[in-house]
Design goal:
Helix content: 40-55%
CATH topology of the largest domain: Alpha-Beta Plaits
Radius of gyration: 27 Å
Structural class: alpha+beta
Strand content: 15-25%
Number of strands: 8
CATH class of the largest domain: Alpha Beta
Mean pLDDT: 82
Number of domains: 2
Oligomer: single chain
């Protein structure tokens, strides 16, 4: 019996790109939209090849590319967006970048690494670039670009949060209000976190004190050693309450 080929994996930088509002543009003018897509793809092909990358997957108005270098991948994305944003007859694209492990299936790339790059692309604004922390760790300080943190997010179909960054550079579009596009759940402030911890402390103190009180009742009339434990718990809770910052 013929054995199926072994799964091949590798670490690479994935670029995911997709045209913004492609279906809406097609509904308005199919011919003009397809012509603009062809011209836009030529920008992608040239910029990706010039930076040592290759286009792996294409589907409709989107594509997946890979680069052996994180820095070259970010540089290619910036070059692409500069060209697309400067021209009126090209389509606006969103771009996402991630450094991760992928499955190689012929010329195609599969796996969570590709999926995460696609999720970053979906979150990015038109003409913008969103990247993962892994990309920032390798490219920061090596390009004339700023990586603005947007906070942790939980992408669709992922079980762990990832840190998302917006690439800010001359000639490309960036979110006008970074807080407005922040794709994360709110991170509690230090004050909120302290009050949440104190709430849990009170709950545990209540359970402990209640248990000691029952022991004291079982021991008979009058205070016994559990009473000292209850007093110690009460004093500890009072001290922590006094140290709480104002909300």
């Amino acid at each position: 019996m013929t054995q199926p080929p072994a799964i091949k994996r590798k670490l690479t930088t994935i670029l995911a790109a997709d045209a913004a509002n492609f279906s809406g543009r097609m509904a308005q003018d199919e011919v003009a939209t397809v012509q603009a897509l062809r011209k836009s793809r030529a920008i992608f092909e040239t910029s990706i090849a010039n930076r040592g990358g290759r286009i792996a997957n294409t589907a409709g108005d989107g594509l997946i590319a890979e680069f052996p270098s994180v820095v070259e991948a970010v540089a290619a994305a910036i070059t692409i967006q500069r060209h697309l944003c400067a021209a009126e007859n090209l389509l606006p694209f969103r771009i996402g970048l991630h450094l991760g492990d992928v499955i190689v299936e012929g010329p195609d790339l599969l796996g969570d690494g590709v999926n995460l790059a696609a999720r970053l692309q979906e979150a990015a604004p038109e003409g913008g670039i969103f990247v993962s922390r892994q990309v920032v760790d390798q490219a920061k300080g090596r390009l004339e670009a700023e990586f603005r943190p947007l906070g942790p997010a939980l992408p669709k179909n992922f079980t762990e949060e990832v840190a998302i960054y917006a690439v800010l550079a001359d000639g490309i579009k960036s979110p006008s209000d970074l807080a407005a596009v922040r794709p994360n759940r709110a991170v509690p402030s230090l004050e909120q976190d302290a009050h949440a911890k104190f709430k849990r402390t009170k709950w545990r103190a209540g359970l402990g004190g209640g248990g000691l009180f029952l022991i004291d009742l079982v021991n008979g009339a009058g205070p016994s050693w559990p009473a000292f434990g209850i007093a110690a718990i009460a004093i500890s809770v009072f001290v922590k309450w006094r140290k709480l910052p104002p909300k």
